[in-house]
Amino acid sequence: MAYRGRLIHHLLAELRQLDTNVTATSGGYDANWKTPTVSYPGGVRTKGTAYKDPIRLRCQVEQVQEAGQQRSQTGDVPDSRIVLVFHYVDLLAVSLVGPDGRAMIRPNDKLVALYTKAGALEKTFTPELFAVEVLDGGHGLGGRRNLALVTFADRPQGVT
Predict the structure, then answer these.
(1) Considering its fold, how many domains does the chain have in total?
(2) Can you tell me the distance from the alpha carbon of 132 to that of 38, in angstroms, rounded to the nearest whole number?
(3) What does the buried/exposed string (b/e) look like for 31-59 if buried means 16 or more CB atoms within 10 Å of the residue's CB?
(4) How far is the C-alpha of 46 from the C-alpha of 7, rounded, in Å?
(5) Within a domain: residue 59?
(6) Residue 23 lies in a domain
(7) Over the stretch 104-146, which tens digit does the pLDDT of each residue have?
(8) Could you tell me whether strands 38-39 and 110-115 are parallel, antiparallel, or unpaired per DSSP bridges?
(9) pLDDT for 74
(10) Cα separation of 92 and 129, whole Å?
(11) Is residue 45 part of a domain?
């Protein structure tokens, strides 16, 4: 077996994957606008999206921008972004690699929290962060994919 590298200083990321089948069948997706439906039961804004059970994966934190400010016509808008690096060996262990060999973390999967190696809570995210980009980060010495870089941001990009 070829050497595939490893993560250096890892944490545990808790992810909740968007369940597109349940979202679509429960009426939580508007096919015309291609967006999650929004309702206001009891005056509280609620999205119709459904997520799978949380999973924890080893990851390495690469870049962080937390609550940076962007100016807009209606005032300052906070902008948070984090890039996590996942190893394909860890993704394979929880069946998150598709038949094409690519990571099955998809846009709009939610980053819930980061934990230490021992499982202690390190950080939660408010507002919530959603996957907006998934890239292959490199190939190991044996020529196989070994890293997936996932960018999470505080604005979901619609249901995919």
Answers:
(1) 1
(2) 20
(3) eeeebbbeeeeeeeeeebbbbeeebbbbb
(4) 37
(5) yes
(6) no
(7) 999 889 999 999 999 999 999 877 899 999 998 776 666 677 8
(8) unpaired
(9) 54
(10) 23
(11) no
Q: Which of 80, 53, 47 is nearest to 151 (CA)?
A: 80
- pLDDT interval class at 14 (50, 70, 90): very high
Listed range (25-29, 34-38, 119-123, 142-146) with the worst mean pLDDT: 142-146
Q: Cβ distance 89 to 101 under 8 Å?
A: no
- The C-alpha atoms of residue 156 and residue 89 are separated, in whole angstroms, by 27
Boundaries of domain holding 107:
11-16+51-153
Give the pair of three-digit tokens for residue 89: 């060996």
pTM over 0.85: no
Residue 158 one-letter amino acid: G
* pLDDT on residue 157: 42
- Report yes or no on 39 lying in a domain: no
